[in-house]
Amino acid sequence: MCKSGNGPLVQNNKQFDRRFNKNDGRLSIYGLTPKVETAIVDAVQKSAVQRVRTLMAPLHPADQADLLERMPSEIAGSLIGFLDDHLNAETLTYLNGNTRGQIVKVLGAKALARHLHKLSTDDAIDIVEKLQKNALTDVLAALSNEKRVLVEESLSFPKDSAGRLMQREIITVPSFWTVGQAIDFLRSGEIKTLDFYLIFVVDPARKPLGEVPLSKLLCTQRHCRIPEIMESDFRLIPVNMDQEEVAVLFRRYGMVSAGVVDLRNRLVGMIKIDDVIDVIDEEAEEDLMALAGVGGASLRSSITETMKGRTAWLLVNLVTAILASVVIGVFDGTIEQLVALAVLMPIVASMGGNAGTQTIAVAVRAIALRQLDTASTRNFIFREFLVALLNGLVFAGLAGLVSLFWFSDPKIALIMAVAMFANLLIAGLSGTLVPVGLLRSGVDPAVASSVFVTTITDVVGFSVFLGLAALYLM
Fold first, then answer.
1. What pLDDT does residue 46 have?
2. What 8-state DSSP symbol labels residue 231?
3. Which residues contact 187 (CB under 8 A, 6 or more apart)?
4. Helices (H), 233-338
5. Residue 372 DSSP code
6. Coil, helix or strand for 126?
7. How many CB atoms lie within 10 A of CB 21?
8. Residues 419, 461 contacting (CB under 8 angstroms)
9. Does residue 295 have a pLDDT over 70?
10. Distances, alpha carbon 297 to alpha carbons 56, 96, 303, 306, 448, in Å
């Protein structure tokens, strides 16, 4: 039986000079230092094309993208014009959406097509799927037939699916090969530009039989046959699976790469961990921005785009704030006669809103990680109810004592304690039930939960606090 060999431990003794730059917090091991950045901007402003290319060439694509995102749009456009075909194609993959859109307009269809030829299909798709219809048509027409077919096939899959995320270039070998034959194939030079971690074993119909980690292949004797070392128990991803589900699989099982199959169970591509990290970043950013009600805003968004992303939710917040104010207005006579109520009222609302936000954050995270099935949802709601109950008791006591010390009125202290307890309890329940209910209704909990929960806690808090005051103090 063939076994993988254990070679000597190789250690990298290269030492990095991690000098810290006090001006902007960057380390000198990165290529883009303030000195380099200033020199490039100066060269662009002086139209020193050759110097621009010389300064940009040593930079990593990620640093080049960082530089373009830091620059004003006009200077960034000039820089791209000076670089032309000297621009590293990988730089386009590191740019955020708004900056990339501006850069693509400067490049033009033919130049963009030349850069896409240097990229794997997953990176090419990530760029072209965001183009306008006319621009997309021009770019596809400028691609080679082979590349255009691959791109068009990938575009036929649903947006945000595994089919859009996958890389079409993969390494496959037949099951009757030996390790030596597979290694010789890899060394043939035909695939020298491809990054991969797994080799897929397929039958004549291109249906996957197993997979072999590259490390295992290289550490096994040449005469061993592929079926002896391949892993038959492996996970495949359906081509129409949502990219969030793909990210959950990679995170849960610690995967670095996985094959993608079509509806006929034929191997059509692979997804790597770097693409999944991008998905996780995008989804996390999307949820974070949605919770804040600012949509997909960025530093390069226009004033109109920024206004559109914020106005809708500000309008919703205005309506809910008016609803809370209506509740206060009902008890305006009570508030006029007791100044203490006006002083203590914001405390009740603030505590309820913060408690609700805390619970929403936990609920949205659990939903994003697919941790809430029927049984776990019940357990989660019960757990948060107990937390809210205990918090309610603790802070009701504290709020009552503060009110008693402040106004020396036991009735006001008791009303404050009861209102605080009721609001924290409602905040905990609504913080769990609202996101779960929105999810089952097909609404993104990250977008709408905070608005509803804040309204509930404000209305309940004011109603209980002022209602009890009107009943027992007036």
1. 92
2. B
3. none
4. 243-253, 273-292, 303-330, 332-337
5. -
6. helix
7. 13
8. yes
9. no
10. 29, 11, 10, 6, 17
**To which CATH superfamily is domain 303-472 assigned?**
SLC41 divalent cation transporters, integral membrane domain (1.10.357.20)
Tokens representing 9 are 């431990």
Question: At which residue do the structure tokens 């094309």 appear?
Answer: 49
User: By C-alpha distance, which of 89, 98, 106 is closest to 130?
Assistant: 98
Indicate the class that CATH gives domain 172-272: alpha beta
Check if the beta carbon of residue 165 is closer than 8 Å to that of residue 271: yes
Note the pLDDT tens digit of each residue in 171-226.
Answer: 999 999 999 999 999 888 666 667 888 999 999 999 999 999 999 999 999 999 99
Edge to edge, the sheet with strand 172-174 lists: 172-174, 198-202, 208-213
Q: Which helix (H) or strand (E) holds 148?
A: helix 145-155
Give ranges for CATH 1.25.60.10 in the chain. Answer: 34-157
What is the CATH class of 34-157? mainly alpha
Helix (H) or strand (E) holding 184: helix 179-186
Can you tell me the distance from the alpha carbon of 436 to that of 426, in angstroms, rounded to the nearest whole number? 15
Residue given tokens 């009701």 in the structure block: 396
Considering the chain, tell me which residue range(s) the CATH 1.10.357.20 domain(s) occupy. 303-472
